[in-house]
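Homework help board

Subject: predicted structure for assignment chain

Our instructor gave us this sequence and asked us to write out the predicted structure in token form, then describe one feature. I got the tokens but I'm not sure how to describe them. Can anyone check?
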Amino acid sequence: MKTAKISLDRSVVGLLGAGVVVIGLLWFVFLRGTGGQTAVSPLPTLAANGRALYRLDPAASEARFTLSEVLAGEPTIVIGRTADVAGEIAVDLADLSSAEVGVVQISARTLATDNRLRNGSIASYILFTDEYPVITFTPTAVSGLPPQAAIGQTVAFSVTGDLALVGQVRPVVFMVRATAVSEERLEGHAEATIQRADFALAIPRVDNVADVSERVALELDFTAVRE
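My token output:
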């Protein structure tokens, strides 16, 4: 990471909480003030090939990261959120062996915690969103699906892929539960855990911040609508 570029007033950093700042990077996802926020809109990457195509609906989806720290002596849970997500799913409920998940994109400029100043610090000093505006997850395998599913049936499976974050690319496995609530709509939840060190996500040394968790939880609540 570009830690050499970090030059923050220590009193401001102490107020924001460095650990909180660091975690913003994830599922990712990143606010750099009120301007320059561009919604992700990847080109379609999946062909139907006899399957129904579904596109993630940002109005009904949310990506989150969660980590813990001790801030000013108090245990603190930090959560960042964004609805600025995009991606595709191709599925034939009668033949789930052909199911496929397309590239998932999350805006690195719009994920936000509950503190505007912290969000700006995440964008400027941790995620470097001018250089890395989008976080991507590129699936390479879908495992554990049953042969078929009915409308209203929830299925559990895993999606393995490559997570690209701040110039680092590492393999990650998401555990997923999904339901075809109708022929026109899929709903589900995906979660994974990453280690900060795997993405070179160093935390600046600041006062009042300690015990920032190495593990970071990533989650996606999604709704996908048939195209």
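Reply (TA_rk): Your tokens look well-formed. For the description, you could write something like this. The chain has one domain: 3-226. That's the kind of observation they're looking for.
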